[in-house]
Amino acid sequence: MTDSDADDTGTAADFDVDAWREELAAKRAEKDEFFASHPHSPVPEPERDEFDGLAYFEPDPDYRVTATLHLVDDDDEAIARMETTTGGEQRYRKVGELTFELDGETHALAAYRPTGEDRETLFVPFRDKTTGQQSYDAGRYMDLEAEQELSDGETVVVDFNLAYTPFCGFSDAYACPLPPEENWLETVVEAGEQKPELGEH
To answer: Domain residues for 152?
Structure first.
């Protein structure tokens, strides 16, 4: 996860934009195929015949930033209780805080892992100024690749072009954690998935 080639402008020095665009297009095509036909698709089965792909913001490398991870102490105060879209609650362990530059300003997002699970990826739910307008009302998620042994102060690539709508945006059958207030960004993030057009969720 560490990006040792990051420069001080918040971008990765060896970033190949063309390769990145191709990889992003492939991931989006694969996800559209899954949503359209897979038995575990969150799109309700009666609506799959009309599903013609997810809506996305245009790929923008400016929304691929390098963040610094600041770890938090592993104690009771690191447990976050997130409300869900169905009125319940889910518990996550706050791993640390990611600070980064975007649109000329410094921002921060908390990164989490589920309690009781030995998962490597970091879960980053967030809201921004597109939430409820161009993007899903309950916010969006990012899953960042990470190793179990994290180092304080290491750099992490955060690509908002990979931000996605939780499954509850497509079906009320899912209970999705709502981004806590500390992850409400006071900026516009026109990257990643846009608001689903199927149904009213």
So the answer is: 17-183
Structural domain tally of the chain? 1
Q: Is residue 64 part of a domain?
A: yes
Structural contact between residues 158 and 68, judged by C-beta atoms closer than 8 angstroms: no
Cβ-contact 46, 52 below 8 angstroms: no
Strands 105-114 and 140-144 come out as: unpaired
pTM of the model: 0.88
Within-domain flag for 33 = yes
Summarised one tens digit per residue, pLDDT across range 1-42 is 334 344 433 444 467 999 999 999 999 999 999 999 999 999
Tell me, yes or no, whether 91 lies in a domain. Answer: yes
Burial of 178 (0-12, 13-18, 19+ CB in 10 A): middle
Q: Decide which of 128 and 151 is more confident.
A: 128
